[in-house]
Structure formats: C-alpha cells, structure tokens
Specification:
Elements (H helix, E strand, L loop, with lengths): L9 E7 L5 H12 L4 E4 L7 E8 L14 E9 L1 E3 L8 E4 L7 H9 L3 E5 L8 E2 L2 E2 H6 L9 E14 L2 E8 L5 H12 L3 E11 L2 E2 L4 E2 H6 L18 E4 L1 H8 L15 E6 L2 E9 L4 E7 L2
Parallel strand pairs: 1-14, 3-12, 15-16
Antiparallel strand pairs: 1-3, 2-3, 4-11, 4-12, 5-6, 7-10, 8-9, 10-11, 12-13, 16-17, 17-18
C-alpha cells in the first residue's frame, strides 16, 4: 500500500513546557495534526521552556536552513552547586560556600564571556561521538571529553543577582550550550553553578510572545497557529520567477538568467507569489540549480 502524502505543510512556533523533550513535543504535534512527517529545529532540554519550532509536511525539508538561527535565552544560574548535567536535573557532585559577590565582581567575569568564545559541550548532550550521543556514553559511565567548539555570545546581560541565583539575558549563535555557559561562569566566579531554569525567548524570527502553548494547540483549532513553510527563511534572499523560469525549476533545470547579487549560496524562489523552491548557486557552472522544489 503506497504511503499517504502529507496533507499539512507548515510550521508551529510552540512554547515548550518544562518536563518534555523536544521529541515529546514532536510526537504531540504529530498526534494533533494527524501527520507522520513532523520534525523540530533547535533542541531544547527537558528542563527548558520557550520557543521550539516544529515543522510539518514538506516544511521538514526546510529545517536544515533554520539550524543556524541565532537564539535568545533567559537563564537562572544557581551558584554554589555543581551537577553532572550542568542543570537542575542532574546529580549534585559538589557544593561550595558563596563568597560575598558584588555586581561589579559578576560583571567583570561576564565580560570575558562576550564575543567569540570556545566552550566544551556538557557530557550529557545530544551530539554524537563514535556513533553514540554523549549522554549515552555518560550513562554508561564512559568518560568522553567533547571537543571545544567556537560560538558567539552577542549579548550577555545581568538582569538580577539575588544570591544564590544569577539571572542573565543571553543572545548567542546556534550551537551554543547555555548549560556549559552557566557551568563556565560558575567556575570563573569560583563558586560552581548550574542552570536552575532556562527559557528560550527567540529563535531567528520566532518570538516567545507569538508562541502557542502545547495545551492551547491541543484544545483549539490548530490551523489557526500554522505558519507558512517559508516563515523561517527571513534571512535568505528572495527571487520571483517568470512562468518560464518556474517551469524550468519544476523540471530540475538550471537558471542562468537571474539578476541576483550573490549574498549567499541559497535563495528562496517564488512563482506567482507562492513559495516554489530553494535554489543553490553552482559556482563552477555559474548557474542557479534547484536544491529543493515544493510546488
């Protein structure tokens, strides 16, 4: 029996509740819209809440283009306590007395974490090492030291300091581990620390103010909250094709007659105002070729 093609195509900006994995949310959306082809962009830990972009239907083929979105978080760091996972869900492995830290002391440390930094992912993370995820190795008691990675901390702002809790506003590049940031700040302050709570306020163009709680999605007409598949491609240049160009793209043909500044290697192409395809620049042939076609 042939597999049924998805009837629903689009994105949901979900306000993820605490206690659910990102895959739990995907499963919930799958059940709500009754479609199997569902995925998410930008994993959130179970403890975290806030923006989780979930794609349905052919919009799942666009998730790779949203992976690089900058993120914005509000994080509460509990100083004086270290855990295995760098957050409140882990086992406590060390406790330290808190010195009398001033705002000036904290600001001095935060300054060293702004800009381009190198950080080591937590041992309990979803990235893979030798075919397994890091948290799988950690649960087996195998000590793996992840490779450092370069990330960018665009904004790191102290919002409040009520000992032992430090609340920060963070805007960062994709791939940043806020748990590692919290751990490293705790180490730099000489107190240790872990994430007590974490809320994602934004991912690219998606804002938490516009996000729909999962319970609301379940109890109302979910179509009200379905966004167009291209809603996450705000930073990709756009081109409107002629009918003849659109027909060529539908058949996998190249385009050499587009007058486009080369701002990047991808453009989103439209036909008659409708999202048609992602085009990729072929430097060798000096043409635009269809990468993904949707109409």
């Amino acid at each position: 029996m042939p597999r049924r093609r998805p009837r629903v195509h689009g994105l949901f900006n979900i306000d993820k509740p605490s206690g659910m994995t990102s895959h739990d949310v995907v499963d919930a959306v799958r059940a709500i819209v009754r479609e199997r082809q569902v995925g998410h962009a930008g994993t959130l830990d179970p403890l975290a809440t806030g923006v989780l972009v979930v794609a349905v239907g052919y919009a799942t083929r666009l998730l790779e283009f949203m992976a690089g979105h900058d993120k914005v978080y509000r994080v509460v760091i509990r100083l004086g306590v270290e855990t295995t996972t760098y957050d409140a869900e882990g086992e406590v492995i060390a406790e330290h007395p808190l010195p009398r830290l001033t705002v000036e002391d904290i600001e001095s440390v935060l300054a060293s974490f702004r800009g381009r930094i190198r950080q080591i992912p937590p041992r309990y993370a979803a990235i893979r090492h030798r075919g397994k995820r890091l948290y799988e190795w950690a649960r087996q008691g195998v000590e793996i030291t992840p490779q450092p990675r370069e990330v960018i901390i665009y904004t790191l702002r102290l919002e409040s300091w009520h000992p032992p809790d430090l609340t920060l506003y963070v805007k960062c590049s994709a791939g940043t581990y806020v748990r590692s940031l919290a751990h490293d700040i705790g180490q730099a302050l000489g107190t240790g620390g872990h994430v007590r709570s974490l809320r994602r306020l934004a991912s690219g163009p998606f804002r938490v103010e516009d996000a729909v709680p999962l319970d609301v999605l379940r109890s109302s007409d979910w179509r009200t909250y379905l966004l167009p598949p291209d809603a996450g491609l705000h930073d990709m240049p756009r081109v409107d094709l002629t009918p003849e160009q659109a027909q060529r793209v539908r058949h996998g043909g190249f385009l050499s007659d587009l007058n486009l500044p080369l701002q990047g290697k991808w453009v989103r192409a439209y036909a008659g105002g409708r999202f048609l395809a992602i085009l990729q620049w072929d430097e060798q042939r000096r043409v635009w070729r269809p990468k993904k076609v949707f109409l």
